[in-house]
């Protein structure tokens, strides 16, 4: 079989694409585990590249299957009409079939793992959404409690102001009474002195 055989060329391209997809898949798994530290853009880009790579591999494998089908459908053509660069012999066909099946199984495994990872991420997002809702409700409740506490403080402050005003009034009234008592005593003393002066 010639190295220029299209089967080997396509197989090499598929192998390169599979290796690239494996690298992207590993990076995608790392990004999922580091979701808090990385940007959403890099995760989206890696996911899109991985999907595009897998689609490309799938198309290449379909082309290989089609080529194998053509070769298997025309086994009776004379060898003179078959060029080594156009057709594959029976052993290459079976090797290609096995290779295609392996690549499809690998691709399916990667896609299944990707689906599981996406389900886990979706579950985590639901949990975080539920937790954020609970935190929001608790913050609302605490806000209501703080508002009630502030109103109670205002009411208490008003009561304290009233009590202080009453105390100031009582204190003022007490000092006025003392003054009147002092004046009354002084008037009494003055009268006594005047009486004593006039009686002498």
UniProtKB/TrEMBL annotation:
Membrane disposition: Single-pass type IV membrane protein
Localization per record: Golgi apparatus, trans-Golgi network membrane
Gene3D superfamilies assigned to the protein according to its UniProt record, in alphabetical order: 1.20.5.110, 1.20.58.90
SMART domains xrefs: t_SNARE
InterPro entries for this protein: SNARE, Syntaxin-6/10/61_N, Syntaxin/epimorphin_CS, T_SNARE_dom
Kinase among keywords: no
GO cellular component: organelle membrane; trans-Golgi network
Protein name stated in the entry: STX10 isoform 2
Coiled-coil segments on the chain, per record: 47-74
Any one GO molecular-function label of the UniProt entry: SNAP receptor activity
Record GO biological process: Golgi vesicle transport; intracellular protein transport
A Pfam match: SNARE
Residues in T-SNARE coiled-coil homology domain copies: 108-170
Transmembrane segments: 180-199
CDD domains in alphabetical order: SNARE_Syntaxin6
Organism (species): Pan troglodytes (Chimpanzee)
Keyword list, A-Z: Coiled coil, Golgi apparatus, Membrane, Protein transport, Transmembrane, Transmembrane helix, Transport
Record's keyword annotation contains Protein transport: yes
Family: Belongs to the syntaxin family.
């Amino acid at each position: 079989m010639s190295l220029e055989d299209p089967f080997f060329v396509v197989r090499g391209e598929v192998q390169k694409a599979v290796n690239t997809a494996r690298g992207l898949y590993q990076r995608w798994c790392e990004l999922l585990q580091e979701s808090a530290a990385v940007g959403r853009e890099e995760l989206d880009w890696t996911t899109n590249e991985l999907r595009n790579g897998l689609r490309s591999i799938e198309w290449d494998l379909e082309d290989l299957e089609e080529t194998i089908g053509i070769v298997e459908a025309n086994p009776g053509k004379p060898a003179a009409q078959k060029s080594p660069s156009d057709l594959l012999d029976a052993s290459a066909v079976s090797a290609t079939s096995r290779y295609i099946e392996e690549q499809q199984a690998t691709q399916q495994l990667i896609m299944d793992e990707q689906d599981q990872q996406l389900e886990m991420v979706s579950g985590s997002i639901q949990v975080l959404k539920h937790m954020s809702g609970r935190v929001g409700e608790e913050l609302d409740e605490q806000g209501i409690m703080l508002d009630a506490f502030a109103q109670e403080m205002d009411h208490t402050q008003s009561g304290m102001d009233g009590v202080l005003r009453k105390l100031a009034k009582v204190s003022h009234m007490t000092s006025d009474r003392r003054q009147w008592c002092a004046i009354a005593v002084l008037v009494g003393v003055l009268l006594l002195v005047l009486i004593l002066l006039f009686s002498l």
